[in-house]
Write a structure and sequence with these properties.
mainly beta, 61 residues, binds zinc ion, four-stranded antiparallel β-sheet
């Protein structure tokens, strides 16, 4: 696949948000993506459905 792989960075629950924006996580238990808006310096929450700890930035605010 001709896609850049290096760009994707995951953040974990409990880390501080480095950048305001929209973060998402693919929730396997729901079978769909869960998105949350987060402001800089806020802490990443766990997914309420599956307790996942991985978030990825989809859109910087
Ligand atoms: Zn989830």
């Amino acid at each position: 696949m001709p896609e850049k792989k290096a760009a994707k960075k995951f953040y974990r629950t409990g880390e501080k948000c480095p950048e305001s924006g929209l973060y998402e996580h693919f929730c396997k238990q729901k079978g769909e993506k869960a998105r949350i808006p987060l402001s800089k310096t806020e802490t990443f929450p766990p997914c309420r459905t599956c307790g996942s700890v991985k978030w990825v930035l989809v859109m910087a605010a």
